[in-house]
Every structure is written in C-alpha cells, then in structure tokens.
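Quick start: load a record and inspect it. Here is CDP-diacylglycerol--serine O-phosphatidyltransferase:
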Amino acid sequence: MDANGVSVRNNTNNRKSLSFLFVYVLVLAYQALNDDIGQRNIRGNDVSETRTASSSSSTKKGLFFAYVSYLVYSFLQGEDTHMFRPHPGVWRCVHGSFVLYLLFLVFLVFQETKEQARARVFAFWDSNLMFAGEDDEKMFPYEERTYATDCRVFTPEQCNLASFGSCFQNVKNTILDEFFLAHVLGWFGKALAIRDWHLLWAYSILFELMEVTFRHWLKNFDECWWDSWVLDVLVCNFGGMWVGMRATKYFATTNVGRGSYSGSSREESSEGVEDHGFTERVIDDFEESSSSEEDEYDEDGQEGEDDENEMKNKPAAAARSSERTKDESDGKKNRHHRRRPSSNFVRVARKSIENYILPEKGHNWYRYEWQPFKTPGRFIQCVFLIGMCLSFELNAFFLKFIYGIPPPHILNTLRLVLWFAQANIAIREYYVFITDERGIWKAQLGANAWLAIAAMAMEFLVILKHGDGLFTAKWPKAVVRCWLAVSAVIVGGLIVWQFKKEKERRVMTKTKYKNKKNI
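Running the structure step on this input writes:
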C-alpha cells in the first residue's frame, strides 16, 4: 500500500507482467498475420463461399482472442479477491470470465426472440442449436430421459439367475445414469462453498420441493418418490455433502498444524494475496527468540547477570545446537532413503495437493458460522443465500429448455463450472458482508457477490422474456396452497420472533439502567 492507501505491486511482479504482455502480443501478432496470409491465398471458383466460411472462422477466432485478452488483463492487473489458493491470478481470471458472462446475458436479453438468440449466438457453438424446438427429430440427437415412466422398485418380470440386479432394473438404470456421479460431485462442490450442515440440508430438501413445484412445466422434474427422496437426498446429496464437509474439516485441521488459526473471525481469516513466506519465517524466528528471552527473564530484576551468563554460554549452546540439527537432518535423510518409492510418491503427491489447496502459513481455511437462528435478520440473510442457490439450479433447467440445449452439451458444463468457481468467491464475500460488526447498512458488499447477484438477475430476465408462451400449464392448486401456507407460517414466525427479541432487549436495557442507578 502506498501513502494514499492504493494497492501497489512490487517491482518483480511489474516486470513479470510486462514480459507476459510482450509474449502475448507476439502470439496475437502471429495468429493475426498468419490468418491474414491464409485469406489472401484464397483461389478458385468458389471464392464467395470460401470467403463466407473464412469470415465466420475469423469472427470466432476474434471473439476467442478478445475473451483471452480480457482474461490476461484480469490475471495481470485485476483486483485480488479473498481467495488465495491455488493462485490469486486464478480467481482474478474467474472474476474476469464472469464479467464477460454477465455481458453475454445482457446481449441475450436484447435479442427480440429466442430464435434470433439461437441464430446469432448459439450457432457459433453448434449449428443444430439454431433450429431447437422447431423440429424435435432433427434437433435432439440426445433424447432427454424421463424418470417417472415406471416407478416400481421391484421388477419380477426381468429377474434371472445370471443377474440379481435385474430384479431392480429401474433402480439400477437410475444409478447407472450418466448424471448420478455428477450429482454427487456437484454436492461435494456445494459443501466446499457453503460449509454448513444446516444450510446444505435446507438447500437439498428445498430443491426437491422445487422439482415438485415446477414439474408441470419441466418434465425432467417428474421423478419417482424413491428417486427424489432416497437416491437424491439420502444417497447423492448426503454422500457429496459428507465428503465435502470432511474435506473442509481436514483442510482446517491440517492448516492448524501448519501454524495458523482456524477461527472464523475477520481478523483471523484475512487470507493474504501476496507471498509472505520469507517474511513470516523471519517473524517466526524473531518471536521464538523473544519468547526464549522472556522465559529467561529474572522476576527479581537481575537481568544483567542472566545476560552475562547467556553471552558466556552462547558459543557452546550454538555448537550443541548445530550438532543436534546436523544429527536430526542425517536421521531424516536416512529415514527418507529407507522409504519405499511408492510411499515417497504418495507423500510428495499429498504434500503438493496440500500446498495448492491449503492457505499459506499464517492464514486459515475459512470456517463459516452462518447461525441462521441467531436473529430474524440473520435467518432472512441465510434464506436469501439459499434462494440464490436454488435460482442457480432452476435457471439451468429453464435455460436449456428454452434454447433447446441438450443436457450433455458443453454450454451447460461451462455454465456450471463458471458458476461453481464464482460461487466460492461470492459466498465468501457475502459471509464477510453479513457478519461485519458494523452491520449490513455500513458494510460494503464485495464485487464478486455483487456480480453473482447481477448475473442471476440477468438470467431471470432472459428466462422471463424468451420463455414467454412456453410455460402455459396452470399451477396445480395443491402446490399453490402449500406454498401460501408455508409463507404464512414463516412470516408469522418471523414477526413473533422479532417481537420476542425486542421484548428481551427492552428488559435487558431496563435491568442495566437499574443496576447503574443503584451503583
């Protein structure tokens, strides 16, 4: 930081950024000039068609390198986030990618119809997507699977002695579905991002209720009871959450062994974004020497004699310390050579993973203490977070239905990966925002959390505009009544809770006033 409070990078990073920029400009120049030479060599009768194809290719290449150029700028000059591992530049690139995703959604909003959006945008990825919804047989080489055609658990007509699993063929087909493992991995990632059992369970159960709520619009949500509540909630969701929470606990515990705190306060949790390895080693050495001097301090005030004795014995102590250090290092080398190659490989691999995932020494693996039942305000803040997560899930299904994008298409995968990376930073900043001691009215929401909310709003606008006329089925009365009842109970409970909190606060204020008056 300079005198004005502006973040300043050191000279080494500046030199590296300039060198990287020079190399990147050379790569761009090579690509641009090479493409220009290729266009000049066009010959033959089909010049117009060839030029049209070449123009399309040049447009794609130009958009790609424009995207890469913005990522390079974000990596080199972007603002650092709260996240540190595996490298601060990775999270700067995530922020840059999400900014471009937000601009992409804004562009989609201003397309008049979904057909224009397919023709102008999605045709760059896959020409078949331009005709989505007009001819299902032409469009969908991948047939989206329905999960509620046969909800029997036991299928006796398919039993045979060769395979016992065929007696439960419906369950077997669901488990062997290509998205079963993706479901587990998804909840593993959500556990790493949210890091709280209460919110994760609420998220898991509410999403199943969302499927029941919107299955009259999306056939993909129509599932068997054992698929929704047994395989999804109790197997996939719980399995992914358990592994994710175990990983979070392991990272936090291991990081404590590395010499940092594991609390969740802002003072203890400020992960730095610079490499202070050498500085921290110097500070640690200084603290060790200071602690040793404090232990040797004479409470009777005889410091001079202790200092003289320490100066006399210092050469001998240093010699003994060097011999002991040498013996320990020799012993470690001998133990290292006695290890088997396989154990050495596992040890090195584990150490490398820890170094790239765990925070640097002096920082911590951030533990979230959401405390949704602390106050009515905190409950609403946690509900808002769960609502954002549910919107992320639902938008994925609505967007692929509107634009006719098959589930295994690369566009769906890119969106999920991008949202997962951004969610880690956004949730971290949102947690810091709502737990700020100054309160949410004086605290400032982080840029990545703001960006995530803006992107979610843009996705909703895209669905609202381009989904007009696609979702015509009426709401089931049972669904409407249930959600009205739940909303009434929640609102009533929050009002009663707030009145009780206010009553307790007034009683405490009166008690403090009386005690002060008696004194």
